[in-house]
Amino acid sequence: MRPESEFGLPADAAPDDGPPLAVDRLPDGKWQLTLHDLEPVSVHRLPDEVHIILAPPCEQPPYPTTANAPARPSAAPPDPIQIDTAARTVSIEGRQLSLPRLEFDLLAHLVLHPQRAFTRQQLMDALWPTCQSSARTVDVHIARLRRRLGPGRRDSISTVFGIGYKYLPAP
């Protein structure tokens, strides 16, 4: 058991590394969660607990930058699929895409972890921990998501045969 002062630190963190999150008890008995360099991707409220999925903020702004904003080095063009987890919006090449909650959670999770292959069960556990459905539910939501992305972007969600799915950013 680690000392309370190290709560929120990864096990291999150096002593001078700040925690990515802090939990404090307020005088009225409520708890306060403070996030440092993390954004909530999804929140699931259960009768006795709350599941919060956190991720680092997107490197790209969710909407095109203005003309007077400082230019970024053009190492790679920005990904055409932009996720704003705070506003829970998706924009594809500037066009707003309306998604149901489960499909938004799935797309946001994949886009925030590009090139990483996830099994169906990993996606179910991360996104819908209380769902009692078959892992094939993920296949249905992937198919719907690909249809919504359209012919030009549906291939960005790749099937990893024998494993599951991954997001491939635009080349």
Automatic annotation (TrEMBL):
Residues 1-25, 61-80 are annotated as: Disordered. Residues 72-169 form the OmpR/PhoB-type domain. One of its GO terms (biological process) is regulation of DNA-templated transcription. GO terms for cellular component: cytosol; protein-DNA complex. This is OmpR/PhoB-type domain-containing protein. InterPro entries: OmpR/PhoB-type_DNA-bd, Sig_transdc_resp-reg_C-effctor, WalR-like, WH-like_DNA-bd_sf. PROSITE patterns: OMPR_PHOB (PS51755).
